[in-house]
Amino acid sequence: MAEATRLTREGKLQDAMALLRGGFAGTPPEPAAPRPGYAPSGRIFDVEPDAVAPPSSAGFMERLKRGLHRNQPAAPPPLPPGARFVTQTFTGAGGSRAYKLYIPASLPEGPVPLIVMLHGCTQSPDDFAAGTRMNALAETDACLVAYPEQTASANAQRCWNWFNPEDQQRDRGEPAIIAGITRQILRDHAVDPRRVHVAGLSAGGAQAAIMGATYPELYAAVGVHSGLACGAARDVPSAFAAMRSGAAGLATVGGRAVPTIVFHADRDATVHPVNGDQVIAQARSATSLRAETLRGQVPGGHAFTRTRHTDPAGRAVLEQWVVHGGGHAWSGGDPAGSYTDAHGPDASAEMRRFFAENPLRPG
Length: 363
Prior knowledge:
By secondary structure, the protein is α/β, with parallel strands linked by helices. The protein contains 10 helices and 12 strands. The chain has helices at residues 2-9, 13-23, 57-66, 125-132, 134-141, 173-188, 203-214, 236-245, 274-284, 347-357; strands at 84-92, 95-103, 112-118, 144-148, 191-201, 221-225, 260-265, 290-297, 303-310, 316-323, 330-331, 340-341. The strands form 2 sheets. A 10-stranded mixed β-sheet has the order 1-2-4-3-5-6-7-10-9-8, with helices on both faces. It has a two-stranded parallel sheet with strand order 11-12. It is globular.
């Protein structure tokens, strides 16, 4: 962070951009201050202890080589008999990406929901699937799960380029590619078009927010885990500033207000937790809602605060989970995947529930 900031101040924007593109996953901002009213506890687990200090460029690259995962991804678990986890490719005007599609053995006749999962930096579809356990949920909930794969040629650390203006627009760049993958699956499989959802972690969470804002007629609901609001950054300096302390101003999102569920830990030292508040504020901007707050505790794990924003009909169309004492990792995730915290509430199960409660509605 210090190195990228120095490069920006000196006018070396290309070098700063290269650092952001190549090292977003492992470059933590200053540790997040506890939010008012919260009592965080526990340790920050998303980086090695020596990575918390502002890195020199040499030390930063060395840590990237070692890997900054709390847990390294394991081999994919064996598939249940009859299930398939297939690799496909989409090519369109915006470019080409591979993706993996999980087709559960328990798939019934007729249209089923689809969840599009966007991995974080340095991750892969197999890694993200293992860490979130979303494929196991697909077996019990009867849905398809797609995992678009970012390429090293597009971003050296395989981050979705949420901070680039061309990757924040409808029918341009990465949004066009992800939407193209989604539509290809809708064409090739029996998917209920009213139950198509998108979720992601970190850079993938930021990209999921962009997908909901740019394709509100395609995605019925959005899940943002440890991510940022649509338009939180427009260049390198604003990207680092948003990660450190939130976006300077929220972009206005027109059209349908897309139901959104947010998970963010209050000790996240990579993406400040205020960004979770901003995702909710942006999604709520065009809606009159009533908020109710509940507090809970995972047995043997983290405490959490859950805020539901309900519409006049009593439907929870926005939901925010703050995980107390957690860091930059998928809450309730499996240690078989990277960036997971098994001590938090189960983000995958809660997102799946929220998605089921929020199909695409007319108008």
